[in-house]
Design brief:
By secondary structure, the chain is α+β, with helices and mostly antiparallel strands. The chain has three helices and four strands, in the order αββαβαβ. The protein has a four-stranded mixed sheet with strand order 3-1-2-4. The longest helix has 21 residues, at 2-22. The protein is globular. It starts with a helix and ends in a 6-residue tail after the last strand.
């Protein structure tokens, strides 16, 4: 039983990591702004405030506005 739980948790972790790695934009859930990966404001963001998006349209549809520094 413990082995099945460990396998399930590992699978979930790999899936979440793959989703983050493929994301193009990172949103700040506090400021409701989204950034290109590598933006100086994205780098200062707390991990708990991050939302990941595959496209600019997806970020906008969730109510996020583009960063005025990196202009995604």
């Amino acid at each position: 039983m413990k082995k099945k739980i460990a396998i399930a948790l590992t699978t979930i972790l790999w899936t979440a990591t793959a989703a983050i790695a493929s994301a193009t934009y990172v949103g700040n859930m506090t400021s409701m702004k989204f950034h290109n990966q590598g933006c100086r404001w994205e780098q200062k963001m707390n991990e708990s405030n991050r939302a990941y998006f595959d496209s600019r349209d997806q970020a906008v549809s969730y109510g996020y506005v583009p960063c005025k520094v990196c202009r995604p």
